[in-house]
Amino acid sequence: MKTKPRPPVILQVDLTQYGWTLTEGDTSHGLFISKDKAMARLRERQKALRATGIAADVVVTKQEDPPRGSKWRVRTA
Q1: How many domains does the chain have?
Q2: In angstroms, what CA-CA distances link 70 with 40, 57, 67?
Q3: Cα–Cα distance for residue pair 33/70, rounded to 1 Å
Q4: What is the extent of the structural domain holding 25?
């Protein structure tokens, strides 16, 4: 019997006036001083999700040049 595919999880990185935030749905994964630290945490979370068989879409706001990689969607706030 086939199982129903799980919808992808949306990981979102936003630039706020206090720093970069990483959220997964309603769950916050922290506030980071630099974009690099937020992106490093995002990659760790993507690996953990991939290990359990869950796809992750990434949304980054306030990014001049979109990063290369899988399923990036960029929108401005």
Answers
A1: 1
A2: 15, 8, 9
A3: 24
A4: 9-75
pTM listed for this prediction: 0.67
What is the pLDDT, as a whole number, of residue 52? 87
pLDDT tens digits, one per residue of 18-60: 889 999 888 888 999 988 899 899 999 989 988 888 888 888 7
| Structural domain includes residue 2 | no
Neighbours of 4 (CB within 10 A): 5
